[in-house]
Here is the input.
Amino acid sequence: MIIAPSILTADFCEIGNLVDQAIDAGINWIHLDIMDGNWVVNKTITFGPAIINSIRKRVGDEITLDCHLMITNAEDTWDQFANAGVDLIIVHIEAVDNMDLLIENITNAGKKCGIVFNPDTPVDQVLPYLDRIDLVLVMSVVPGKGGQSFMPEVEHKIRTLREHIDLQREESGKDVKIMIDGGIKAHNISLVKEWGVDISVVGSGLINEKGTIKENLNEIQDALAN
Ligand code: DX5
Ligand code: ZN
Here is the structure.
């Protein structure tokens, strides 16, 4: 299981120090939550390509950066995130009109492409794209802010994706990673691993008042090991 910290609940003046700490603790993937003040229900604005570019310069080329685009016009602006240095661009199925074209554009630009879908969107909508994408992200909270409660009802979506992806890998060799995002903590990470998740985004479970990133990560890794 890969743990991908979300910096959404961080003190943004401390981002550089926090990514340093995460990498020192053994993290090799960082999840960047982009909200444009329009698409998410609570109209949050987070940060954009300039900050991402600074993070890329800070972490070097060995760390995987993904951007989770919770924005209305991903079809027009995805390339700004590609140019800022992310490896993987994750777009919401609910927010994109021509997903076929967007996947093609992102992959032709040499970037990996992921599709994400909300808790109330059926998994069937994502299945037709599994032969063309690198990752599928299952939202286990309604996107908009960190620190929300995990929605266990996403279990069937993950199990369905696991079955389809395993079958596809056997038939064609094409693998797709399953990522989960929202409310993942030490107490539920083993559960989602058992369902078939490959990568867990962890925001408030890693960056909080309770402990350092290293202490919180150790707690999560202990939970996974037991
Ligand atoms: C929600 C974001 C998540 C989230 C993760 O809109 O996509 O990445 O902030 O934070 P926690 O782990 O606190 O739910
Ligand atoms: Zn996210």
Observations:
- Strands lie at 2-5, 29-35, 64-70, 88-92, 112-117, 135-139, 177-181, 199-202.
